[in-house]
Write a structure and sequence with these properties.
Helix content is about 25%, strand content about 25%. It is built from ten helices and 15 strands. The chain has helices at about 10-30, 60-75, 90-100, 130-145, 150-155, 155-160, 165-170, 185-190, 280-290, 325-330, and strands spanning about 45-55, 80-85, 110, 210, 215-225, 230-235, 240, 245-250, 255-265, 300-305, 370, 380-385, 390-395, 400-405, 410-415. Helix 9 packs parallel to helix 10 (about 325-330).
Length: about 425
């Protein structure tokens, strides 16, 4: 199957003017001087790609998919590459080396990632302290003489509602019935002990950020998470100075660009037992944490990219899919050029029923995004990438199995300084 990146067909006509203008800009900016002060096109352009490769145990054929990944990554064609869910610590180091290996001619020179494991994490503190629950215990004992739910609701609800939110959630997260019926003591004990943190995939976060240019101000941020450990990895592309001397300035027409690579928690059928209250609330908490990553006055553009397990409705074919996280970013002023389409346009999905790992009766979804803080002053072009499929032959049983690297495809966005701004 052809693995060439595919542009959204139904948007081709509307994009012709943009592409034509972009081509003209290439000619104009290829000269020595122009209205932007002599910057060539490369100095005015940054390209980004995101791909959740899903190298964990959730999908079958892990060894076969891992073996094919390097073949797919050879099609990577952006300045910045954000990969998610590479959970094996040896594999993520191998991929980092592959991207930077000069003989592969991919051009990446810098990667940012950190391997994490369950042993690194401190236990979760108790939700309630003895002092906090003392009034509730006293009320239940003195007023009700047991755990009758009607009595607790009538006499002790005020004491329960006065508890700190985390303690209250632990104690009556499932309603007052959880402390009635004779299990009051068990619920109390559960809420008053610390919990060992045990994430899936041995606690590794699986995030890798790669760049064809040097990066500065690198950092990581552990996100509130249950099930899989989630993290944001970030760095800045731009100018670096030391003692007043400019060491490099690779995108001078744009200025410093901060890139944040992440993957939010997925909405799971598994019962949620984390500290955020629900899978949906955990995602919104993660968005809030990501937005707290510090920037500075020198940063001209901020980019958040990765798998958000969320999309709003868009075009004529994409319906809402857990829209909360994406809607939160849009409400905060972030721009997603992939969804900047007319109502009659078709948006190519990244989580698609055509993918061998997705139920063919599922709706098309776009859970992968590249968000930009600033829209004005730039021209954006987006397309779907890393569209792939392979066949696994079983000679003994005379069967063949379709599979992809992941149950996601990727997105690529090119951002260029608008010559007319």
């Amino acid at each position: 199957m052809n693995n060439i990146n595919i542009i959204r067909e139904n948007k081709m006509v509307r994009n012709l003017s943009v592409i034509f203008a972009f081509a003209i800009a290439v000619v104009i900016f290829s000269g020595c001087e122009n209205e932007l002060g002599g910057f060539n096109l490369d100095e005015q352009t940054i390209s980004f790609e995101t791909f959740n490769v899903r190298l964990g145990e959730e999908l079958p054929l892990l060894s076969e998919r891992t073996e094919k990944l390097e073949r797919i990554l050879k099609t990577a064609d952006s300045d910045i590459l954000c990969l998610q869910e590479i959970y094996d610590e040896n594999e993520i180091m191998k991929i980092s080396q592959f991207l930077k290996d000069k003989k592969n001619d991919l051009g990446y020179i810098s990667t940012v990632y950190v391997n994490t494991k369950n042993e690194d994490f401190d236990p979760i503190p108790p939700s309630c302290t003895q002092e906090e629950v003392a009034p509730v215990v006293m009320c239940v004992a003195m007023e009700c003489g047991g755990t009758d739910i009607a009595c607790i609701a009538q006499n002790c609800l005020g004491d329960i509602l006065a508890l700190p939110p985390v303690c209250q959630q632990c104690l009556i997260g499932d309603g007052l019935g959880s402390i009635a019926g004779g299990d009051f003591q068990a619920v109390l004990e559960e809420c008053m002990v610390e919990k060992e943190v045990v994430y899936k995939n041995k606690g590794n976060n699986g995030i890798l950020l790669a760049s064809k240019y040097p990066l500065k101000d690198k950092g990581t941020l552990a996100l509130t998470s249950y099930g899989n450990h989630r993290m944001a990895v970030y760095a800045t592309l731009g100018k670096k100075e030391k003692d007043g001397i400019i060491l490099y300035d690779h995108k001078p027409a744009i200025g410093d660009t901060q890139i944040i690579c992440t993957a939010l928690s997925a909405i799971s059928d598994e019962e949620y037992d984390g500290i955020a209250g629900s899978w949906q609330q955990e995602q919104l908490t993660q968005i809030s944490e990501i937005l707290s990553i510090p920037d500075n006055d020198n940063i001209a553009q901020r980019v958040i990219m990765g798998d958000f397990n969320s999309n709003i409705a868009g075009g004529e074919n994409i319906i809402e899919s857990n829209p909360g996280p994406v809607a939160a970013l849009i409400s905060d002023g972030w721009y997603d050029p992939y969804f900047d389409v007319d109502e009659e346009d078709t948006i190519q999905c990244t989580v698609c029923p055509e993918n061998p790992f997705i139920n063919k009766n599922s709706s098309e979804a776009v859970h992968d995004h590249i968000f930009f803080r600033n829209r004005k002053g730039f021209v954006f072009m987006s397309e779907r990438v890393f569209h792939n499929e392979f066949l696994l032959f079983n000679e003994k049983e005379k069967t063949k199995t379709r599979y992809s690297i992941s149950d996601h495809y990727g997105i690529r966005t090119v951002m260029t300084v608008d010559p007319n701004f």
